[in-house]
């Protein structure tokens, strides 16, 4: 038997007075420490610029788009179609551009999408009819479908440790763009000039200025991609945790090899001593049966593996190859299960050989990947329909509903807010820009507050419920204040209070729902399963809501009485929070400050 100093049942290698865990530490790849990868700065700046311009586009277009439509004799329905067309184009072309980048190159897919975005904004700036505005926003939506490629690039060129930092920087740049959009609009408020080139009239005013400015920003971003460095195959493999041939071993690997050699010597000594003691007390018949079974194993071995044995009794069962020790002795144990005199000896040998083979197997490389002797059969990948069937799950469907409702309300609110402020308070583009700056600042504050609360250990479902309560309170206020005749005047403070409370609930839910959804996917699909397929369905819910919300609000603005519009939104919210409370226990996690949340119920 092995002594406590020589055997550790918890899976540890004993080396002197130290215990070295067999489990690979986080940040190691195949037993080797994952090195910090230098980031190509010009490429990173170009990628960050895409997200920045996309958020500037929202803040610079929304304050003026309704007045631009009205100036061309458009209607409220035109506003709904313009905003919905942008989201619809994103929904359709997000997977297509992603597929293009996978099959070709990131540079090619991004540059073409930037050219499309420039074309769309030029059409918007040159519009002479409401249909041209809709067409311009539709084309611009196709160009903005490159947003998903920013995350793809960061995932391809960064390690897991770097990825968190760079994603935080990208989100910070996006937040700056959200605030900068209305500020740019303030700068365009005094713009008023025009000129002719042959028969083409170029007009620069506060209504067309957003299209011109976005075209310039996108063109500058396109020029920056001259210096863009395409991620190589090795960078993508290393970012995914796959070891390449160029990886240099570190001190940790050397220590493991030394520890393995020491353990190998101990294993052979234990085998020899154990066999010697066992054979001394065994009769000749048992020994002959042992030889007979062992020889039968060798003669029936399909792999024709040669095992060298000595004729001496002490070396009768000692293999010369550490790799075959586990296979031979494990099968020998199965063949001799009825021979009671050799059970203890072979059992100890199998345990030691198995322990050693797992450690030794971690050092063996086959091609560009490692062989794992403890798990020689890889897990079969789920099919498309099996992955789709797993999405039919109570907790995941609840996440879909929450995401749909908060995006639907947000899409409807952003469509309603500009016409209402113009009709009720005679706001112009400059006033709307100030209002959107305040709203954008509030959104950013609650996004960072939500992230801070989550890092302190507050469960995602409580943050979502917090957002739902404020969203419902804001919708109730809008119903009370604006749910009557469209011509009824409402004080400005009532409008401001309703919008502020409603806006408090939207970013809180949007930030937490993706975190909750990702953790639920880890529980259902496993920690190592990529989540692109499942996250696509979550984005599908949000995009669909951003299409339907503006359409409903556009038709609701033409109603003489807006009660049906707001009662529908409030009813949708009641259904949303009701489903959330019904499946509340299925969204439960245990969290601790500074630690990742873990699911305890589903």
UniProtKB/TrEMBL annotation:
One of its GO terms (molecular function) is transmembrane transporter activity. It is a multi-pass membrane protein. Residues 239-330 are annotated as: Disordered. The chain crosses the membrane at residues 45-69, 81-101, 108-125, 131-149, 170-189, 209-228, 388-413, 433-455, 462-483, 537-557, 563-584. Residues 43-588 form the Major facilitator superfamily (MFS) profile domain. Keywords: Membrane, Transmembrane, Transmembrane helix. It is found in: Membrane. Its main location: membrane. GO terms for cellular component: membrane. This is Major facilitator superfamily (MFS) profile domain-containing protein. It comes from Cavenderia fasciculata (Slime mold).
